[in-house]
Design brief:
Blueprint lengths: L11 E10 L2 E11 L4 E5 L6 H8 L7 E6 L2 E2 L5 H7 E4 L11 H6 L14 H13 L15 H14 L4 E5 L7 H16 L4 E5 L3 H7 L2 E6 L2 E7 H4 L2 H8 L2 E7 L4 E7 L9
Parallel strand pairs: 3-8, 3-9, 6-7, 7-8
Antiparallel strand pairs: 1-2, 1-4, 4-5, 9-10, 11-12
Length: 274
């Protein structure tokens, strides 16, 4: 196994990681290294283990086999509060059942950094205002979060995660309920933070074109295993997409978006969905 100096140590190192829900395998012998300072997309068909892998990275699930190292140390050795100061997770379905205001929910992200019963400082409140403005929810600040649309609630979830001041942001299909404008704006905001050295992002995505535009690197899962990992341009190849998704693909550089663009169709021999 390769040895890393403190400066070279990756964010995560997964060695032979397998996880099953009872007798149903979800991850099979995952071996990968995730470096800091990048936006990394996790892609793959439904049920291939994307969300499970994200939960393993977050320390929410413990694999039955293999080891998960975060910054060179077993993730099992971290206290939850210490992890919360490093990692923030935006779940696929963000729901709060009580009528907290949007501002109160975003301020919850400060909890890992506050002493017990301490109140946010003036600097904290200024940071919260900036984050809410960047995520386009400042006008909603005093509204109950339970009365927001799904897309608005998802932007609140991202804002709360950013308020944690994480080194790494984990996103589980966080753009799925967003409209086109807010999807692009959210990913642009995060990409800029990655470029400025403020953040690393690990994102589960379904949209191949969003992945092509915003991700530096991709992990492509297939039937619970890691089919391929590498720079986005190397992964988004027609033969790779056909092997994993069972579709025909054309991949071309689009000067308008300054990124690859993927066009897809079913093979002529593909039966209709039953």
């Amino acid at each position: 196994m390769a040895a890393y100096s403190k400066q070279e140590r990756p964010l995560w190192q997964l060695d032979g990681v397998s996880f099953a829900y009872r007798d149903k395998p979800a991850l099979k012998q995952i071996n990968c290294v995730l470096e800091s300072g990048r936006c990394i997309g996790i892609l793959g068909p439904n049920g291939c283990g994307k969300s499970t892998l994200l939960d393993v990275l977050a320390g929410l699930l413990q694999p039955q086999h293999g080891r998960v190292l975060f910054q060179g140390k077993s993730i099992r050795q971290y206290r939850r509060r210490d992890l919360a100061r490093c990692l923030a997770l935006v779940p696929q379905n963000f729901r709060i059942r009580f009528d907290f205001s949007v501002r109160e929910v975003v301020e919850m992200g400060l909890h890992p950094h506050l002493q017990r019963f301490a109140l946010p400082t003036a600097a904290d409140r200024e940071q919260i205002n900036t984050i809410m403005q960047q995520t386009d929810i400042l006008a909603l600040a005093e509204r109950p979060v339970t009365r927001l649309s799904g897309g608005e609630q998802q932007r609140v979830a991202v804002a709360r995660a950013l308020a944690q001041r994480p080194q790494v942001l984990l996103l589980d299909e966080a753009t799925a309920s967003l409209d086109i404008h807010h999807s692009l704006a959210m990913l642009e905001l995060l990409k800029n933070r990655v470029a400025d050295g403020q953040l690393s992002v690990i994102a589960v995505l379904h949209d191949l074109n969003l992945a092509a535009r915003f991700c530096d690197e991709l992990i492509l899962l297939h039937e619970g295993g890691c089919h391929s990992q590498g720079p986005t341009a190397h992964i988004l190849q027609p033969h790779v997409l056909q092997a994993v998704y069972g579709v025909e693909a054309a991949v071309q550089y689009n000067p308008f978006t300054q990124s690859q663009q993927v066009s897809l169709r079913l093979p002529a021999s593909s039966p209709p969905c039953q």
